[in-house]
Sequence to fold (666 residues):
Amino acid sequence: MNRWREARQWRDRLRNLDPSAFDTGLSPAGAGAAWNAALEALSDEALERAAEAPGVPWSSATFIAARTVFTAPIEWLALLLGHGTAVRWKSAAGARVSAQAIAAAAEDLPLTLQQDRSLSGEVIFAMGSDPTIAEIQASLPANTTFFGFGSRYSAAWIEGAWDAIAEDAAFYDGRGCFSPGVVFSSAPDAAEQLAAAMTSAQNRLPVGEISDAEHAAIRARRALAKVTGKVFEGEGWSVHQLPAERWTPAALPRSIALVSCAPDELPQLLRRFPGLSTLGTERTIAFAGIRQCLPGQMQKPAVNRVHDGIFLPAAVLRPNK
Amino acid sequence: MNLPDGAGAALSLRVLAFMDRSLKSAAHEDFDALALEIHRWQRERDPVLAALTEAEPRCLAEIPAVPVGLFKDLPVGTVPPREAFVVFRTSGTTGGGRGEHRLRNSMLYDHGAFAWAQVCVPGAPADIVALLDDPTQTPDSSLAHMVNLFTKFGPHGTASWHAPGGRLDRDAANARLRTLGKPVFFATTAFALAEFLDGDTAHLPRGSVLMVTGGFKGRVHRLDGSQLYAAAQERFPHARLVTEYGMTELSSQLWGTPNQAYRPPPWLRPIAVEPGSGRPLPAETAGQLRFYDLCNVDSTLGVETLDQGVVHADGTVTLIGRLADAPARGCSLTVEEAWELRGGR
Fold:
């Protein structure tokens, strides 16, 4: 029995919450923007379309969340709950308050949403690092259906949408696999344009907490850029201009690697590292199997999308025989 | 053996004199002044260091400390690859390539490592049994190179190596311990020790030294240091347990015990910095560790680690561990959380 009406009620309750009280590590403005964007993506129309995906609802599922993007579970939970699946989920360390709020919003609704640490259910969805995904999978009984989403990175090709890409980098403070860790451009003034846009984004969405390890990683890449490229930085942000052979797919908070290249060089540069999730671009670029979207939308994924090669609304269902 | 240019050779000799005199508590050169001279000499020969130097340093803390990650990306140091007589390489376990520490020769390294170990582990046996790879097979392992020096603790020292290719050979290690039947210097990484303690072990005779090095963070597992030390002490009650902290990128090491902070040699200066700004922190404040190593004449004086620790007023260091981590790449759960999910460990 489907529960779409109740899933929408749950979503509406979430919309009334104040995420600035959550343990997100983001600034209040940053947490609010991320929360609103995640819930806006769950429009009635989007949920109706997702409900039409082919397949049979699972009776029970477990969802294991990653710690980088505190809103990431919401869309998965919405679809599973809408299909009437009983959901157990394990929130990430460091996101307990938001997890409690998300679970509490389902109380007294005929939805089964339990925070639970056990690995049980017909199907298990997990997000995390590659070793963690492998570790979880290895620990499961052979007959358990498992969807693991490991480490990915995202990039952007930008010609003029500097403010939009800076906003993508500001969402979730630049963490998560949809964040543009590296920006490619052929614009001669790309660094200056991006630097100005990062300042503006910082004014709108001030940066939140940055861990010691992230600080250290930013300063290490800054050193690399000082030796091999150029450094642009301001309060709460940095742009590290690097030669094409020096970038690596690290999503550092409010810190972007900028690489100058011609458009036809881009596919080859991206193939240097496997695991590309999303390419933010103002034009369609021939690159199979990845999500492409406009700058400004990278961190605001639609529910009805292909996620790491799987159509998300279908992934929450058992395939039809 | 390759020699640096005249000025570099003179600096190396001054560092040697510094080491010897400081160990005898005799008057020696001022650390900061010598460090600044070495830095200036290095900067003229190392484009990486030159690019990282924003202004002429006036004191030790202003000398750029090269992040360890940069050793993987760039040729750090004053020795071009073709002129390196000794090359130590990082393990590469944290991803990316392997960092290189190139030396024209290992004179300062060997002299300092041996002398400071003698001070910190007096009376240590010269028969080495190591859960490490054989340094003749892995000449780029700075740890194996260092441990091999300790055969000179006595006139007839021996060494045997029982982790070929990183795989523990328990039977061979036990056989060696039983055959020797006398005190040994038992050298191991924390992970190899944990594995060794998981099975049958020969005993370490009274007078033996158990040296544990390496962090507790692995590719998959994370060890509890206190538990490991307690288990080791219980299994080897007659051995003296010592801890060693070293890095491929450094030429000098720190020694301690499980209950005692690490002691750096006089020619190695640790500084804790605030991770966000890189600014030095006062003593007794936890921060990101940097080391200024006078023996790093061939490479670079200052090295910035990814470790967190407290530098005490007396210069000793309490290591806290890796910097509090938030994954820099993609979505991440920790393996520990996966263990939690399974209800284990």
